[in-house]
Each structure stands twice: as C-alpha cells, then as structure tokens.
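Quick check before the chapter quiz. The format below is the same one you will see on the exam, so make sure you can read both the input and the output lines.
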Amino acid sequence: MTNNSRGIKRYHRLQYVVLLAAIAILGRLFYVQIIDDRYEAMAVANIIRTDIEFPMRGEVLDRRGEYLIRSRVCYDVMVVTRDIPREGFDSVRLATILNISMEKLRRELRRAGSASRTPHLVAGYLSQEAKLIFDESNFKGFYTRFRTAREYPRQVGGNLLGYVSEVNNEHIRKWEYYSAGDYIGVGGVESAYETLLRGEKGISYHAKDTRGAIVGPYMNGELDVLPVKGTQLTSTIDGRLQEFAEHLMVGKVGAVVAIEPSTGEILVMVSSPTYNPDLMVGRQRNANFLEMTRNQRQPQFTRALKEHYAPGSTFKLVQGLIGLEEGVLTPGDKYPCHNGYTYGVGRNSRTMKCHSHSSPLTLRRAVAESCNAYFCYVFKDIITNPKYRNIKEGVRKWNEYVFSFGFGDRLGCDLYGESKGFVPTPEFYDKGYDGRWNWGTAISCAIGQGEMACTPLQMANLAAIIANRGYYYIPHIIKSIDGRDSIDSRFYERHYTKVSAHNFEPIIDGMWMSVNDDGTSRQAKLEGWDVCGKTGTAEHNRRDASGYRYPDHSTFLSFAPRNNPRIAISVYVEHGGFGSEIAVPIASLIEELYLTDTIKRQDMLQRVLNYKINYGYYDAKQRKYDQQHPKQ
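Here is the expected output.
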C-alpha cells in the first residue's frame, strides 16, 4: 500500500472520530437543553427564589358569634445557606432577635446544609415586632415567611377544638397538598374540618441578583398565585356555657355533654380533665404536649366521645320504654322491692341491692325513686316474653330496641374518634358461656351494669330522644359554614327509635316526679322550668392495694323544659358517688345558666366547686408511671 493510500485511510478514520464526537456532543446538548430540565431548574434557582404563601386559617365561632379559635399573624424565619456571605453574619444578634439559643441556631444551620439552595426553617412564631427588627438587620441568606398561629380567646375546649401542628412524613405521603414545614389540624374541630379551615396555599416568585440578594418580584408578580383564606365555621357550642361547665368539672374526671334536642346541635362538650389549647401554640408546644402525655388522668383524651362507661340507672328509662312497647308492662303495673331483687335458687341465689323506698311501686314512681328491683322484673319479662321461642330470641329483640336508641354503634357525630360503646348480644353470651346461659346471666343489663357500655355523647343523646318523644338528630358540632346553613344533610334527618311516641309520656312523668316530687333528682329543680331528670350510680370494681373500694361513678341525665325542651344534658363523674351527690348539681347549674342567663343558687355553685373526690386510683397510677419514666 502506498503512503498516499495509507494517508487517505487515516484521514477517513479521523473524520469518523470527529463525526462521532460531534454527534455525542450534539446529543448531549439536546438532552441537557430539551429533555433534562435539571440544569434549567438550577439556572432558574440562581435567579429566582420561589416562596410558598400560606393562607390565613379559617376562624371558628361559637353559636353566639364569639371567637372560639382565631388566627394571629406571625412569621417563620428561613435560611438558604448558599446565599449566606462568606464572611458570615452576626449570629449572636440573630439568635437574640429570634429568641433562640446559639445551640439551636447552629443546629438548624447544620440541618440546612453548608451550601444548600433549599430553604430551611430556622425558627417559627416570630412576632411582627421582632420581624421589623429582623428586617432592619438585613441578614443575607435569611428571610421571613408569612404564617399564622392559632389563639383561643376563651382558652377552653382543648379536646373539643384540637390544635395545629407541623405535618409529619405520614401526612406528606398520604396527602399531596402537604409539604415539609406545613401545618395540619390535630384532633377536634381542627382535624375534622381541616380541608375547609386550611384554605389554599399561594406561591410567589422573587428575582435575585448575581450575589443572591432579592431585587424584587419576578416578572412584576405576574406568575404569583395569591393564597385563599380558610373557611369560617360557626359551631353549635355555647362558649360561655362551655367555659362554665369546664369550671364546674375542675378537679373531677368525667364528661359533660349538652344537646339542643330540636336540632341535635351540641351546646357543651367537656372532657375532664382538659387543657388550655393555647398551650399547644408556639415554641413550647412540644414540651407542653410531653407534659400532658405524662399525666395519667389523660387531659388529651376526649372522654365525651371515646370513653366507655356503664350507663347505670339512667338506662332504666330504656328498659321501661321497651317494656311498654313490647306490651309486657303498663304504667300501672306494680312490683315489690325489699331492698333489692333476688334471683337464682338456693346457694346460687343472688340479690341485686337497692336503696330503701316505699314498696310496691308503679312505673312512674319506680323511675322517680330509681328502683333496681322494678326494672329487673321488667327486663326479665322483656327477654323471656312467651311470644319468642327462647331466651336468645328475646335478647335479640331487646338488642333491636337498644340499637335504635343509638347504643352499640357510632352516632355519626362530625368529630373523629367516636366510640361505639357495647351492647351484649346472644352471640356474645354464647361465646362467653359456651352456650349455657339464661336470663339471670344478663340481669345486670336491667340497670345499665354488667356488659353494657356507652359514651357520654350517647347518654346525652338518650336524654334528647326522650325529650323529643322518640327520635333524635345526629349530634354535631358545626352549625354553619361560611355563614351558610351548608352542613351535611344527614344532620337534618330524624332517626326514630322502635318505641311509639305515646309510650314516652309515663317515663317523662316519672322523670318529672324525680325532680319535682321528692325523687332522687330533686336538687335539679328550677322554679318555672319543669325540669325532667334521672339519676344514675354506676358501680365498678376499682380497689387500691389495701382493698379499699373507690366510690361509685355519679351520673345524671336531664332535659328542660318538659314541653318544647331547649336543652338535654348528661353528666358523668368518675368516683363521684351517688348520682344525686355531684352529677345532679353540675347538670342543674348548667341548665340554670342556659335557661335563665344567670346563677342564683350560689350555695350550690360553691358546693360543686369545693367538692372533693378520692382519685387515689389515678394518683397511684401516676406514681407508678413516674417511677418507670423519670423526667429527663
């Protein structure tokens, strides 16, 4: 091969190499400029800063138009560490302005990264006054982001209203709306109506110069999206009544629920102990939350919705109503009571005790005197009714009636976390007793004991059902949305029990006699208001190490006035003793304030406020917890 031929061949090879290199370069340029947007994003990040604009969260008013929750302006302080000047900044002054420690400032800068373009939160809840000082100091790389914080003017209803907290990874995974640094409602109204209260986020773009300093809005703000304020909610709660009820329950463990029978609107919902919701706002929120979780009386637990209590003697009203509807009872039927009801034979006989009163009693008087024996006879007649083939069929029919009163299932309240309670069924007894049981096995249910369990909300709903003579509206906490009656239509529907309206009258007569004719509820009497009520004393098995048995639970349900009732209420106080001791005066004082707009019975008020209850059970539980979990 000649030298000329070899030269031509090398020349062609070089051409191929150059061509392939050109193709590779052009392909890479095409990919970078057309397909891969990372470099464009990096270029944009060098000249534009994108900020999320958080909306004002919606307020919550009480039924009178007073604020229960409102928002105040505050600011987050953010840092983009890449924009911090090389010569640094006055870190001591910044920490002083932000009211944080130098240790926290250094920690947040480390978390942000040494040269990150991503904004990182340094400190939250900066006041408007502190922001002005911050702006004057011109800390390059640091900027403020508008934010709102919650405040609670009445400082009540912690369990009821909930609070706002920063989202966690689970929230971010579950909902596209949220990003790191966002806030979300936790518990109560804040959580149940989060999608309305949170509003819609906006976005703003700011142009930066070559040194990273903000020089103004990008494209004069043409691309900016304004945030949309959250929706204002009007609740059914009477703020003054809620505050008063919480005051009465200070030092007590239990719950109070009051409902407007004609609408199902919840006037009061107290879980005691509760907490001041303002403690869950600001930089001390985490410390306050940890302190609450250490409290074994569980102030963060919404007892009104979630706790399972034995209804006690208040449940006798349901037995009477079922007996009347089933035809095994008439208002004039009399049953004896010799300090209790004895059942069983010989060595297996047992007595369900009762307090001393006249005997025999008719239905109305049995309600007024809260006779245990009377309603044991009634319950036995219901579930052993000859028209049913056997005891199982009788109990199953009894179940149908009880379920129709809203027991044994969630009522469907518009707050999350409502419990079902429990109503024993034939299947339950079959499983627990291997199919070998009889009417005596279930007899404790006659007086709301044994396996029966319900929530305070269900008990208040029972009071509303009786006030309405047989129906109820699903209890709810929101009255209107953005000033319009636009709540879910299910809250306007009547739910009827399986008991006819006329059968409620003898029961209501008995409840009226209990208050106004020297019955067990006589402390609840309000002149001119025809209050109707029923006491309950719920037994339990709590004892301390020495064998001391704690007092029974005190409960009471009531409605007033008798005709066209305006309020139905249930009070449950753990270890409060007889229903007449503490539950009755608490409910009666709440009714007095709501119906008369004042409290004249100051002696009763002071007695309730000074009432001492033995909570050694909780104290022992607290001591044990503190020993196992010493404070760090």
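If your answer matched, good. The longest strand covers residues 67-79.
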